[in-house]
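Notes from the 1:1 (GR / supervisor)

We went over the backlog. Supervisor wanted to see one worked example end to end before approving the batch request, so GR pasted a single chain during the call. The sequence is below; no edits were made to it. Supervisor asked that the structure be written out right there so they could see what the output format looks like.
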Amino acid sequence: MTNSQDFQNVDPVIVDAVPEARPSQPPLTSSEENTLALFAHLSILLNLVTGFLGLVPAAVIYFAYKDRSRYVAYQSLQAIIFQLVFFFGAAILAGVVGLISALLTFVCVGLCGIPLAMLLALIPLAALVYGIVGAVETYHGRDFQYWQVGEWVRETYEN
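Structure output shown during the call:
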């Protein structure tokens, strides 16, 4: 049996109210920054295989390295926004126009919309090429900005 004396002689647990700050990690080298930016931009290629998982590597790179490198954070965030807007947005737009064209073919008016839907279907492929261009540019250490997306991300990131 336990004795009430057993509970009275227990050493108190000391809890530190302010945990020690994690030692900061060293900043990335220029070569590491360029390689991580390359992978963030090339993550768009995963959309060819999976359809939607291209965002995951860019997001992981962003959250893992945003405190260690502003360059990597900016390039990976830019890759995420670019994929959301151009790859998925254009795919949805092409699907909607294709559906409308298919429905209007019964009236013969929709035949004019089929070429438009086919052109819109090329936008995700152009986004893939543009993502590869961004990867090559950042790997060579150049500050790459996607059209329309780059400046918006820079303004958002700096505020």
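Supervisor's comment: Residues 70-104 form the longest helix (35 residues).
Batch request approved.
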